[in-house]
Amino acid sequence: MTDIQGIILAAGKGTRMYSNIPKVLHTVSDKTLLEHVLNKAHKVCNKIHVVYGFKGEQVKSSIEDRSVNWVEQREQLGTGHAVSQVVPQIDNESISLIMYADIPLIKESTLDKLIKEADKFGISLLSTKLESPDGYGRIIRKDGEIKSIIEHKDATKEQLIIKEINTGFIAIKSKLLKKYLTKIDTSNKQNEFYLTDIIASAVDDGRIVGSIITKDKFEVAGVNDKVQLAELERDFQKNQALEFMRQGLTIKDPSRFDCRGKLKFGQDCTIDINVLIEGEVYIGDNSSISPNCIIKNSSIGKNVSVLPNTVIENAVVGDNASIGPFARIRPQTKIGNNTKVGNFVEIKKSSIEEGSKISHLSYIGDTSVGRNVNIGAGVITCNYDGSNKHKTDIRDGSFVGSNSQLIAPVVIGENATIGAGSTITSDAPNDALTLTRTKQSTFKKWRRPKKNK
Ligand code: UD1
Ligand code: CA
Fold first, then answer.
1. Is 232 part of a structural domain of the chain?
2. How far apart are CA 71 and CA 82, in angstroms?
3. Would the CB of 102 count as within 6 Å of ligand 1?
4. Rounded to whole angstroms, how far apart are CA atoms 394 and 428?
């Protein structure tokens, strides 16, 4: 097996992003552009070198991968200069694979083909044909063979008509790379060391340049501004949605579905429009997610209905549960089987056991709710005294009447009943009715005050 050395160029500023964040740290889905390229590079390379420059420390600290060799390019004197910073550390017998950090969606299979061509011919180049090739380096061919690359700014009128462009991906035997890099200079319109000039050197050296042409414009699309970033995001999301659908997930409209993370699902799951999945999410058999829901780092059981406009984060939902509409399930919440959480209910760091219902307008925080509990509309667990959080324990079979406040720490006993409108400050015993309520009074013949003239 040939040793493959990946060289990722990431030193540029990305002027057209108009951002303080280095271009390669902008994201497509949940990963930075650089992470996308690194992930692909790892699949085909034995070692990866990243050339960094603009805001280098920020770029470096964004990557946890300790196996990356970071190489600084102090001044951005061109792509050829950037590669020259790395080659002293690369063994002659290897193949170098050059990639740009701002082209995130390159396919592993394409990189493989490019490497195979370089193995065969010594050097190979990935190109594509574009309807509007403006800004790109043009591929100059003679009798079908690649002869050189002319940068847009250096091209003649005739050359500007050429639609075949340089994507930036080049694979080359490292020994040849070193040799051809010594030949490049800055005699061009931009006064830069162009990496692309190594193609003409290889041809002068009597070589044929291996050629791979891709038809997938997204795998070689670069990010230069926020418009291109959004286009790539959409393409990434669409492809991901198609893949999920091929695996059996029903997605009502793949153009209105986003997953920024990892989604796993059982059989016959349905995702309606405008759903956002983040982090690691699992959805069990026969469950459905209604429009406008956000689910992050959570596991949803079987036969669950997540109703519209519900937000679930870092939570576990059991089987046959119904959540929402407009529910907010916050971190460290566990909702059991056959439960119901209705509209405008917020639950935080709590467990709700099997068969319990919290149907309307409640806040349940730091609470353990037992089995078959019924929590009425507008019940609030007052878990915070202004300094500390306290726990509420609502035991099996109890019933908490509407509009009650449970001042934690407090225990509502088994099968206890809390009368509506109560403010519960001490434990409520099992099997009994507890209520705090002033007696109702009526003032007969009472008149409302008249308005002053
Ligand atoms: C480059 C190619 C062009 C190709 C296009 C594809 C050259 C001379 N031109 O042009 O043929 O069609 O990409 O997108 O190579 N970088 C450094 N250090 C530098 C300069 C650049 O690390 O000194 C990095 C940038 O961060 C970027 C990549 O190299 O990731 C490409 O540089 P850029 O200036 O965008 O090149 P283009 O003009 O787009
Ligand atoms: Ca570019």
1. no
2. 9
3. yes
4. 10
Residue 307 sits in which domain range? 245-434
CATH number of the domain within which 361 lies: 2.160.10.10
188 C-alpha vs ligand 2 centroid, how far in Å? 17
Q: Measured from the CB, is residue 166 less than 6 Å from ligand 1?
A: yes
222 alpha carbon to ligand 2 midpoint, in Å?
6
pLDDT band at 1 (very low <50, low <70, confident <90, very high): confident
Domains contained in the chain, number: 2
Please state the pTM of the whole predicted model. 0.92
Ligand 1 centroid, distance to 293 Cα (angstroms): 40
48 lines ligand 1 (CB under 6 A): no
Domain annotation covers residue 89: yes
In a domain, 203, yes or no: yes
CA angle 279, 282, 288 (to 5 degrees): 115
Give the whole-angstrom CA distance, residue 421 versus residue 436: 8
Q: Does some domain include residue 453?
A: no
- 307 and 201 belong to one structural domain: no
- pLDDT for position 14: 87
181: domain CATH number is 3.90.550.10
> 122-150: per-residue pLDDT in tens?
999 999 999 999 999 999 999 999 999 99
Tokens of 341: 């959480």
Spatial CA neighbour of 412 closest among 439, 381, 437: 381
Model confidence pLDDT, tens digit, residues 344-382: 999 999 999 999 999 999 999 999 999 999 999 999 999
d(CA 230, CA 214): 22
**Known catalytic residue at 42:** no
User: Which residue from 376, 382, 360, 299 is spatially nearest to 333, judged by alpha carbons?
Assistant: 299
SS3 state at 211? strand
The band of 12, judged by pLDDT with boundaries at 50, 70 and 90, is: confident
